[in-house]
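Here is an idea for our session: we take a single protein and study its fold together. To get us started, please write out a protein record for me. Once you have written the record down, we can walk along the chain together.
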Amino acid sequence: MKLDIHDSWATHLNEEFKKPYFINLMNFVDNEYREHTCYPEKDAIFSAFNHSTFDGTKIVIIGQDPYHGINQANGLCFSVKDGITHPPSLKNIFKELESDIQMAYPNSGNLESWAKQGILLLNATLTVRSSEAGSHQKQGWEIFTDAVIKLISSKKENVIFLLWGGFAKKKIKIIDQKKHHILESGHPSPLSANRGFWFGNAHFSTTNEILKKLKEPTVVWDL
């Protein structure tokens, strides 16, 4: 499979691409896309890396799996293509933005504008079979995306990691907390949000406060 990934990331990840697990993973992905309907579209698998360059990445949001419904996934965690109904977790993200920074609820659920401002919207698993949540887990994607997180942690400073839910919080062990900023909360899924673990976390305003202190441009969250 041809790796469509921005040179700024490829430069740091070339050795990773040569490892047996990654070669096996690419063979698995090729076969899955050939024999089944999978998401996102093949040319969008590495979208997170092509919208936010390595040098430009200043925030990381970690998701778990791509959406597995028709035409939803666009290669960015929590994001959907323009014109697609917002999934429940994305609705709750937007509701928190409404209360946190008084952002108007957007029509589009496409988060590309966030990615272009230096937010790496990284799913732990970058592909999925249609209608089969978690179907591409434990094939090697998690090893690769952990390597990406470790790379950011070791090579960069003052990156803001937004860790939502138990799965994302487990990544703390591979992030240097002395060099970076970590904001934790419950997951925006209804199960977690309705139990009081998501709403009111103020992660969006807090992120911009950190960026101001770092004398970095703040994020325009409005879509």
Summary: The mean pLDDT is 96. The first strand starts at residue 38 and ends at 39.
